[in-house]
Q: What sequence folds into this?
């Protein structure tokens, strides 16, 4: 039921953006894949796939929302808000900074999602048909909780492990 | 107006998502809950780099012995000692971290120490990232063990005081592992449990401290040399549901 409510709200959000910007071409999209260098113990190397929608606020500022899949010890679905600032005017290699903050939820029954944050700096390079290649490096925090259990001849043991994964993230993607 | 709707929708969606969190550990009648309540010294400054300190939670082991003091099983051990994943240890295996548990367990590794290694870590299901706050572990009896002792050992690295100073030399009675060693030794709590009684709650009490340099598994009952180490945990209770 909660997921259903969420999907309805997401549809409302997307349709609101379309209604506001129809014909003004202020909307753009991006998709990225990424990995990271773990800085935490226990460590887990993340793999991510994300899709984002941006709304152009000014020539330099964009705001948007994103989702995707993150693979740590468990699979997570992050949902987040995003702000992007283009550094300087658009040229062949255009630098930008981007900040994403949100929450990742876990489809698995023995896992809870948690706070998600990614701060990155990158460059974009124009390809064909307004498509741009982008490369970014940054810092990512992903929190999650998982159930751990073990049984021996005396006891079944269970506890909830809270994990905070700090990593240096690397992303490559396309903006269109 | 549309932008405001968008923000409201986004915040509501996040609220719905966060409310999806569930209790991963659920208790039923007769399950046993070991509840470790954090004390004022639960988090301790550990030198990270460039003079910056990191707040570290303690190393913890929870295990069960029979009434005669024979080790039976480990319930929980923190990730670093369970997998030898210390950071900035310069090759030191940190035998002084939780020696009472290590010697009670009695598993000797190729280097002669009783600490799990990277290549032979503890079973994954009983080791986890040390919690930054109070936490609980569930024990559900599957055999016919009715009377037993739950022991808990806690320790911080670099937890120096006047009795266990940083500059103590190897061979000194108060040597605790050197530059990034233990400082004050590990504290050991214990509670004797009788599942045949109607008692529902037991409070684990401090029965002593471990060997400062980790050279043996003895428990030293005089804790007068300890200061902040006595406040790592506020309370440890064993609750029969």
A:
């Amino acid at each position: 039921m909660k997921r259903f409510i969420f999907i309805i709200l997401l549809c409302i959000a997307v349709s609101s953006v379309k209604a506001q910007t129809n014909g003004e071409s202020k909307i753009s999209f991006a998709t990225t894949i990424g990995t990271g260098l773990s800085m935490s113990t226990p460590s887990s190397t993340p793999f991510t796939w994300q899709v984002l929608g941006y709304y152009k606020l000014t020539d330099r500022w964009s705001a948007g929302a994103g989702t995707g899949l993150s693979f740590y010890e468990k699979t997570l679905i992050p949902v987040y808000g995003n702000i992007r600032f283009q550094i300087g005017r658009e040229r062949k290699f255009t630098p930008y900074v981007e900040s994403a903050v949100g929450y990742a939820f876990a489809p698995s029954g023995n896992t809870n999602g948690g706070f998600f944050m990614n701060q990155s700096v990158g460059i974009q390079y124009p390809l064909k048909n307004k498509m741009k290649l982008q490369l970014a490096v940054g810092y990512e925090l992903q929190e999650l909780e998982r159930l751990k259990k073990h049984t021996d001849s005396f006891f079944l043991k269970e506890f909830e492990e809270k994990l905070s994964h700090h990593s240096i993230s690397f992303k490559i993607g396309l903006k269109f | 107006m549309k932008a405001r709707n968008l923000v409201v929708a986004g915040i509501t969606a996040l609220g719905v998502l966060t409310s999806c969190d569930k209790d991963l550990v659920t208790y039923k009648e007769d399950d046993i809950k070991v509840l470790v309540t954090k004390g004022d010294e639960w988090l301790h400054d550990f030198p990270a780099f460039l003079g910056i300190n990191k707040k570290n939670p303690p190393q913890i082991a929870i295990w069960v012995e029979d009434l005669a003091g024979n080790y039976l099983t480990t319930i929980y051990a923190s990730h670093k000692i369970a997998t030898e994943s210390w950071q900035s240890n310069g090759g030191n295996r940190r035998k002084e971290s939780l020696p009472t548990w290590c010697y009670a367990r009695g598993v000797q590794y190729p280097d002669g120490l009783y600490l799990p290694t990277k290549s032979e870590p503890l079973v994954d299901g009983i080791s986890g990232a040390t919690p930054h706050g109070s936490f609980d572990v569930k024990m559900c009896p599957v055999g016919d063990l009715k009377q037993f002792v739950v022991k808990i050992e806690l320790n911080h690295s670099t937890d120096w005081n006047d009795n266990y100073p940083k500059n103590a030399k190897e061979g000194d009675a108060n040597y605790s592992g050197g530059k990034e060693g233990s400082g004050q030794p590990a504290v050991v709590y214990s509670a004797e449990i009788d599942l045949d009684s109607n008692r529902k709650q037991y409070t684990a009490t401090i029965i002593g401290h471990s060997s400062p340099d980790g050279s043996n598994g003895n428990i030293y009952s005089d804790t007068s040399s300890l200061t902040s180490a006595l406040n790592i945990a506020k309370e440890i209770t064993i609750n029969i549901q």
Q: What stands out?
A: The longest strand of chain A covers residues 155-175. The mean pLDDT of chain A is 88. Chain A has one domain: 35-175.
